[in-house]
Structure formats: C-alpha cells, structure tokens
Design goal:
The chain is built from 20 helices and 15 strands. The protein is α/β, with parallel strands linked by helices. The strands form four sheets. It has a five-stranded parallel β-sheet, with helices on both faces. Strands 1-2-4-3 form a four-stranded antiparallel β-sheet. A three-stranded antiparallel β-sheet has the order 8-9-10. The structure holds one RNA strand.
RNA sequence: GCCCCCAUAGCUCAGUGGAUAGAGCGUCGGCCUCCGGAGCCGAAAGCGCAGGUUCGAGUCCUGCUGGGGGUACCA
C-alpha cells in the first residue's frame, strides 16, 4: 500500500478514536488527504484535515490537530507526527522503516513502483494514426512518444494495455495519394502528367514512384487509368506502411494492432451500425445527407454520417470504429491520443458515445499541443501536401531515440514544444537527458568499482541496512519511496512528463548523497557501511532504470 | 463572432486549493590527493492586469490584455 494511504488510514482511525474519547465532537469528517509539504523541514507528509474540519467541528484547527495526534495509533512507518500552526499535522517517516524500504525495491526489481489502479481491466491506447500517405514527419513524433509512454505508465498502473495504430486507408486522402502516385509514376517514364495543386507535392512521392518503377516496371501503364490508380494506391500504401513501421521501430514502439479504417466498410460493420441507428430513430435525412442526431444527447449540432454524394464522412468512421473498440472488442477503456488540431472533434466524442449507448467516461481523448520545429532560428512548417517535411527518421538518426523521446516527454501535454533541431543535435550538458543518463552510468560505475575493490558482485546483499541514517541517505530513501505516488499521478493524469521531473529530482538527490556519503571506503572498518550503501546505490540504480524504461529511454551502464 | 489551450526567474519550463513558489540553461562566486567534475555548493532574479469564492489561490470563478489552436456534407 502507498505510504500516503497508510497515513490516511492512521489519521482516519485517530479521528474516530478522538471522537469516541470525547476529545473531538461528532461531525462530518472530510475526506482525508495526505499531501507532500513543499518544504522538507515540515516533514515527509502532511495532513490538513484539522483545517478542513474546523468549520464542521466548530473547533480551532490547532486543537483538532492536537486531538488527532493524541489518538494516532502506533505504526512502524511513522517517526514523528507534529502539529504546526495553523493546524498542519506533519509526519516524518521512520529512518529505520525507510532504510528497510530498500528490501522492497530489491524484491520488486523492475516492477517496483507499480500501482493497481487498473485492477487488470483492459485499456486500448490508440495513437499516431497518421494518414498513410507519406513518411511519418516530426509532427507525429510527439503523438508517438506520448502514446507509447502513456501505454507504459498504464501498464505500470495495473491496466492491461493494447497499443493500436488506426490506418486511415479509406476516403478521399487515399484517393488523392493514389492519383499523385499515378502521375509521378507516369513522369518516371518521361510522360507528361503534371500534378494538380490538390495532389501531394512532396519529393517522397517521386521516390515512391521510382521504387515502384524499379520493382514493377511499366506494367501499370498498360492498365486503364482507373485500374492503374487502384493498383498503385494499394501498392503505394504497402510501401508507405513499411516506412511507418520503420519509423515507429526507430522510436522503440511496438503496436499490437494496425486497424484498417477500410475494413469497417468492407466487413459490413458500418452498414450494420447504420441499420441499428436507423432502427433506433437516431438518424435523419436533411439536405440530401444523413445525420446522426447527436443534438438529442446535448450536442449543439447534429453530425453528418453519409454525405449527399452518398459517401460516408469521417464521423461515420469514428462511430463504427468506436463501436468496434467498445462493443465488439470489449475494451473497458479507450484512450485516443490526438493533437490539439482535433480539439473540436474531441468535444463531440462524448455525444457519439451516448448515441451508441456507451458510457462516455470509458473514452479519454488525450489532447496534446503542437510541436514547433526550428532550424537556424527559423520555424520550419510541416505539411505533407506542400512537401515541406522533416521526417522522424531524419531526426532520430541525427539526435538519437533517447533525446527525441526525452525532450518530447519533458513537457506537460497542454504546452507547446519548441523543438530546436540545432540544439537537439548538440549532445552536451545542455541536453537534460544526459544529466539523467549520467547519474545512472555513475551508479553503474560505483557498483563496478566496488567489485574491483574486493566487494564481490552481489556480496552487499547482506549489508546491514540499519547503518543507513545519514540525512542525505534518508532524503534519497524518501525520494525512492515516492515512485509509486509518481506513477499513480502520471497514470491518473495521463501525464508522463511528471516522470521526467521525478528523475531530475532523483538524480539531484543521488548526487547530493554521492557528495556526502562515501560509498566505497578503503578503510576496512567501514566495510559494513559500504555494503549497506552499495545496497542503496543498487536500489537507486534500479529505480532509475525502471523510470527510464517507462519513458522508453535507455539506461546506459557507461557513457 | 463563438469555443479550447497558454501566460510563473534574463531564457526554456515544473508546480495534487495549503506553510518561505521549484528545476535546467544563462550570469556571478566557490569545490577534485579513495567511488565518473557530463557533478556539487552558494548568490542575484518571478506567479500578465483587475475583481470574486475560500480559514487558505500560481492553482477555482468572472472580466480584461497578449500569444497559439479550433470553429466543413476534409480526414
């Protein structure tokens, strides 16, 4: 159980006991929340229950706090519980308990920090889902690493997670893609086939056409334009999918499922849902189009399902796709990771859920803000259509997966990221990922050095943890014990960036410990203390590796 | 016009309604004779403006100013 929850229980018991003893009146006790004081001298945890109870109990907060502390049950975890004006109850964790906390970290290993918010329930995280009409560009990189990190955090929080890429292989964009490829393909044979302004202007379409030319020759020229466009569209899609898989792989991401939008129509699911919705009277025909009457569920407007040209609109796909997720595949929860461009669409999703008879709370739309790319001090605009793109592959090959992931995960989701390509290339102390990885490498180095100086690998396992008690050791131990709270918070808020800030904090705490406490001593009299400290270093290294893994960033043994 | 997000130190950003608002970079001043100085210690420096709610507001509400995004029978 989280330390915070243990303390909350102790306080709850104390309040009841105080009431039973007549030291507190009967009143509605507010939910007991345990917080972390900003200032460490106020202790490790604090409760504001006394201030919150002042009004209902009609008592001075200070007196309430004193009554609570008086009835606080004994517990190993608590060293002291102090009352401070205006009514804070401050807890300090027991040094002995903290020191032995190392044993928990050792036994849990790379599972340490896990919490059980999910209780095994299933959660699908759908992310990237960029149109397969070209290589993944840097605009999708934030989506990619955020979605993956959220998936990792949710797994650590007890959810059974499935990662999915939704392939928009239906609709007009695919048609435009196929037409563009057809013209580039003809151009490759020297034919005059100029692009329209609506076509994809990017150079990569030329590469794609040449690739087809090399592999397939001129056989598509012999088909009718319609047949050729169809065939080239399918072939081009396959090739682009290979590009996308490669980029995703470079970022260290694995998808469990690549879901085809087209399959929603080919497999008859869309028709089936339309029949159901019509039967329920949830659609209406107006202006030649068929609408889903979301205004019946509180929306300020209805949504077009089938356009007046007879083609389904994108909302139709969303309806069928989410029906498939929740009803056919039965996910308890779904998270769609969308850029801020889709904020309007996101607001309409709850109505879609209601129209399908589903609880909107089961669907989270995780909105993140833009990434602005800068090169040589100028913003670089990204657009597949204009052809001005910087691919994920280019950037990852230039600055590495770790830097890309770390930089893109070190901001809150709702803040804009300015990604300076020139700066990211500089692999120096200005790059925060190196600070973190350095700390891990330093710990690895300490353990290596220990084995060279007579502490056989693992021989410190029996080190006497009771010897740990230096303030810097206790601070480090307290920070290590925070991890479950950090993971819980990251999972609840779908905000992996808090892991980054935790790591920076932990690194600083470790460096302070390293400064104050010599781990490997040449004095034989300190051998036992060294073994205890080596256990602490190994536990800290484990926590670093754990959190870096949650971020998808590697934890180097040396740099 | 309407809707959403943002505004915190010189710069880039954290900050679950709690106590003296933090970190990195930059600036200034210190620290390597046994573990990695890619590190550590210290200093200067901040919540856009005006109201409101609350025992308590950077955090919640309203208005204003400034920046970004969104407002299709396109996805």
């Amino acid at each position: 159980m989280l330390v915070r929850n243990q303390l909350a229980e102790l306080v709850a018991v104390a309040v009841s006991a105080a009431q039973a003893a007549g030291d507190l009146p009967a009143f509605d006790v507010p939910p007991i929340e345990i917080g972390r004081p900003k200032d460490p001298k106020h202790g490790d945890f604090s409760s504001t229950v006394a201030m919150q109870s002042a009004k209902p109990a009609r008592m001075a907060p200070l007196a309430i706090a004193q009554a609570v502390v008086k009835h606080l049950p004994q517990a190993d975890v608590v060293q002291t519980a102090d009352v401070l004006p205006p009514g804070f109850i401050n807890f300090r964790l027991s040094p002995r308990w903290l020191a032995h906390f190392v044993e928990s970290i050792e036994s849990e290993g790379m599972r340490y920090g896990n919490v059980d918010l999910g209780r095994g329930r299933t959660c699908q995280v759908e992310f990237i889902s960029a149109n397969p009409t070209g290589p993944l560009h840097m605009g999708s990189a934030r989506n990619a690493v955020l979605g993956d990190a959220v998936a990792r955090v949710l797994e650590a929080a007890g959810w059974t997670v499935q990662r999915e890429y939704y392939l928009n292989d239906a609709g007009t964009q695919m048609r435009t893609f196929a037409e563009t490829l057809y013209r580039r393909y003809k151009q490759a044979f020297g034919e005059d086939a100029p692009l329209d302004p609506t076509h994809y202007q990017g150079e990569y379409m030329i590469d794609l056409a040449r690739q087809v030319q090399a592999a397939e020759g001129d056989r598509f020229l012999k088909l009718s334009p319609e047949e050729a466009i169809d065939a080239l569209g399918r072939l081009g899609l396959e090739i682009v999918m290979q590009w996308i898989r490669h980029s995703v792989d470079l970022l260290g991401i694995r998808f469990d499922c690549w879901f085809s939008e087209k399959s929603l129509y080919d497999d008859g699911l869309f028709d089936k849902i339309m029949t159901t919705l019509r039967g329920q009277g949830q659609t209406a025909t107006r202006d030649g189009a068929e609408w889903l009457l979301t205004s019946n569920f509180g929306a300020d407007r209805d949504e077009v399902l089938i356009r007046s040209n007879g083609q389904p609109g994108y909302y139709a796909s969303d309806v069928a796709y989410h029906y498939d997720k929740f009803v056919l595949r039965g996910f308890d929860r779904v998270i769609d990771v969308w850029s801020v461009d889709h904020q309007n669409q996101a607001r309409r999703m709850p109505f879609l859920m209601k129209a399908l008879g589903l609880d909107p709370a089961r669907l989270d739309i995780l909105i993140y803000d833009l990434v602005r790319l800068y090169r040589d001090g100028k913003e670089v605009k990204l657009s597949k259509r204009s052809g001005d793109i910087i691919t994920i592959d280019e950037v990852v090959e230039e600055v590495g997966k770790d830097a890309v992931r770390f930089l893109l995960l070190s901001r809150a989701n709702q803040s804009v990221i300015d990604f300076d390509l020139n700066l990211a290339v500089q692999q120096n102390e200005e790059n925060p990922v190196f600070y973190i990885q350095y700390a891990h490498a330093r710990m690895a180095s300490i353990l290596r050095t220990a084995t060279e100086r007579g502490f056989a690998a693992g021989s410190w396992a029996g080190g006497n943890l009771d010897l740990l008690g230096h303030p810097s050791e206790l601070t480090l131990l307290g920070k290590l014990a925070e991890l479950p709270e950090v993971i819980e918070k990251a999972a609840l808020q779908l905000a992996p960036h808090s892991l980054v800030f935790y790591l920076q904090d932990l690194a600083a705490t470790f460096h302070a410990f390293y400064r104050d406490c010599r781990v490997i001593s040449s004095d034989p009299a300190d051998a036992e203390l060294s073994r205890a400290r080596l256990r602490l270093v190994a536990a800290t290294k484990n926590v670093f590796a754990r959190v870096l893994t949650l971020l998808g960033v590697s934890a180097p043994e040396s740099m």
